[in-house]
Design brief:
The chain is α/β, with parallel strands linked by helices and 407 residues long. It has a single domain, classed as Luciferase-like domain (TIM Barrel, Alpha-Beta Barrel). Helix content is 49%, strand content 14%. It is globular and about 65 Å long.
């Protein structure tokens, strides 16, 4: 299992000054520190950084233009993959040609390091952009097909239900041939199945759920992959899961790093957002059934350490974090997206967390991965040798007459 990163550029309120300077100064600080953290993570061996596209998500996610951030990162990093986590594809968000241009540009600037995630967002953003919500899945898939066509063909033309586009050369073409691997953001079982059936990598953005619930979700995805008809020209069968991660030399550091306050801020804000925008039309009973902890979180009367005990987050020393990471690997996760910068964690504490994970945890995961690969190769060789032996035996038996007499 690889370790990746997920960045949203949190800008926690309250800010230190009235509008506009409180927001402006807080955002400047967040952008500077987050870029420093990702550049450092590149040197520490993290596999991919996924940068979100969110609009109007005050307090939590102040990154509406992930292509700009990823373009900047392409020039200050060397090996880390650069993930669009995700591009919002329903046509009302952005014309498919513009998405094709943005993603391909980052791929060229980075020398072929892009991973391309697609999604359709949530009602809060969809309403603001006038998205046809009932048809948003259909539009997302249609836009993805258009984008792939624009990358593949010298001149692209389409006259369809959702797009009327004259013959034009879309530039640049991606560095990777035929194009970057494609993933899909999911938050439910049905969307995980949809990702699998379309041959897309799974980016599970469903948090606040016990680790035990991930295994059946991943199994549904893997089963769907067996009947996949790839939406794009690159078939991707990988699972990426994100959760909050904080690694420290000692749990005694949690207090000074404001870990529990930061986690409280995260979950309380997320619960309030979902109750307002995702579940507002549901009855109170339906809301409680959909997410039993939501009401408790919204009221702020829950024990935040429960999420540590249930492995819903990964916090602790390097040894403790490694043990938790391995539990995710056991249920079938290919890449764990570490959400390292959240809430009120000091910049120095996040940098220390990156250093500890890169120094102690990533090498150990790589070592175990190499061991699994060697064992799998050895098993594969043994099975091949047995198959060859069995085939040779069948040939010899077929060539030997039944009435052959041997003295």
């Amino acid at each position: 299992m690889d370790l990746g990163l997920l960045y949203e550029f949190d800008v926690p309120q309250p800010w230190d000054a009235p509008h506009p300077w409180g927001q402006r100064m807080a955002e400047r600080k967040a952008y500077k520190e987050n870029l420093e953290q990702i550049a450092f993570a590149d040197k520490q061996g993290f596999d991919t950084v996924w940068c979100v596209e969110h609009h109007f998500r005050e307090n939590r996610s102040h990154m509406p233009s992930n292509e700009v951030v990823l373009g900047a990162l392409s020039q200050i990093t060397e090996r880390i993959k650069l993930g669009f986590g995700v591009s919002l594809l329903p046509h009302e968000f952005c014309h498919p040609a513009r998405v094709a241009e943005k993603v391909a540009t980052v791929d060229v600037l980075s020398g072929g390091r892009v991973q391309w995630g697609i999604g359709r967002s949530t009602p809060m953003e969809q309403i603001a952009f006038g998205v046809d919500i009932p048809r948003s899945k259909e539009k997302m898939c249609a836009a993805a097909r258009s984008i792939v066509g624009m990358w593949a063909e010298e001149y692209y033309e389409e006259h369809s239900k959702f797009l009327d586009f004259p013959s034009r050369m879309v530039t640049p073409k991606p560095w990777q041939d035929p194009h970057p691997p494609a993933w899909m953001a999911t938050s439910s079982e049905s969307s995980a199945v949809m990702a699998g059936e379309n041959g897309l990598g799974l980016l599970c953005f469903s948090i606040m759920r016990p680790l035990s619930t991930l295994k059946p979700l991943i199994e549904l995805y893997r089963d769907a992959q067996t009947r996949a008809k790839p939406l794009t020209s690159v078939h991707t069968n990988k699972v990426g899961i994100y959760t909050l991660v904080h690694c420290a030399e000692s749990r005694d550091d949690f207090a000074k790093n404001k870990l529990w306050e930061s986690m409280w801020w995260w979950y309380k804000g997320l619960a309030e957002f979902h109750l307002k925008w995702e579940m507002a039309l549901l009855s109170p009973e339906a809301q409680a059934a959909a997410f039993p902890l939501m009401e408790r979180q919204a009221r702020g009367d829950f024990d935040i350490t429960e999420f540590d005990k249930e492995d819903m987050v990964i916090v602790g020393t390097p040894d403790e974090c490694l043990k938790k990471f391995l539990k995710y690997e056991e249920v079938g996760v290919d890449q764990l997206l570490c959400y390292l910068n959240f809430g009120y964690l000091p910049h120095e504490a996040v940098m220390k967390s990156i250093e500890l994970l890169g120094t102690f945890v990533i090498p150990e995961l790589a070592k175990r991965g190499a061991g699994h690969a060697a064992a799998s190769l050895k098993q594969g060789i043994a099975l091949t040798e047995k198959a060859v032996h069995d085939a040779e035996t069948e040939v010899l038996e077929a060539e030997t007459p039944l009435n052959t007499y041997v003295d």
